[in-house]
Amino acid sequence: MAPTAPLETAFLAHRERLLRFLRARGAGEQAEDLLQELWLRLSAAPDPAAAAGQGYMMRAADRLMIDRYRSDRQARSREKAWAEAQPGLADNIAPAPGPDRSIAARQQVALVAEALAEVGERPAALFRRHRIDGISQRALAEEFGVSLSTVESDLRRAYARIAAIRRDIDEA
Predict the structure, then answer these.
(1) Which one of 60, 107, 141, 145 has the fewest beta carbons within 10 angstroms of its own beta carbon?
(2) Computed over its alpha carbons, how large is the radius of gyration of the chain?
(3) What is the pLDDT of residue 149?
(4) Closest Cα to residue 39, out of 20, 2, 14?
């Protein structure tokens, strides 16, 4: 018989009690995983006969939960310190873009504005009202005094021009 056989028999006999113990200490859904980790610790014990005792197993499970608690607390502390070191992250404010991104964004906005100017005044206005203001195409048709198909056609022209600009930006 292998030296871990008595330990394994004792562990299986106390398995449900250990599982309840871990759940009662806050293991929740991770109780099964922690029970597996407990088995690994017990099977690596220098004295398998002593590890086979219920008291030893319960104390090992308690130490496992203490280790888990300390690890979680330290991880939260680390994450909090990291978040506080990032400007605006603690307040859920994204950091300001760097100067290079700001310049690139302004250039892209200028390209889109030029593209909209090229498609004409009405298609550009329809595009802005639809995409920025969130006005439906039917409402835009009534507002501009044109048919729904004209609104759709103008929007297609604006979208096509902006898509071409995006392809040019992506290729650059």
Answers:
(1) 145
(2) 33
(3) 94
(4) 14
Q: What stretches in the chain show pLDDT beneath 50?
A: 1
Does the pTM surpass 0.70? The reply is: no
How confident is the model at residue 4, as a pLDDT?
60
What the block records as the tokens of 163 is: 């898509």
Nearest CA to 13 out of 54, 58, 49 is that of 54
DSSP state of 95: P
Alpha-carbon dihedral angle through residues 136, 138, 141, 146, given to the nearest 10 degrees = 150
Give CA angle at 92 (91, 95), nearest 5°.
Answer: 95
Counting every residue written for the chain, the total comes to 172
Neighbours of 157 (CB within 10 A): 19
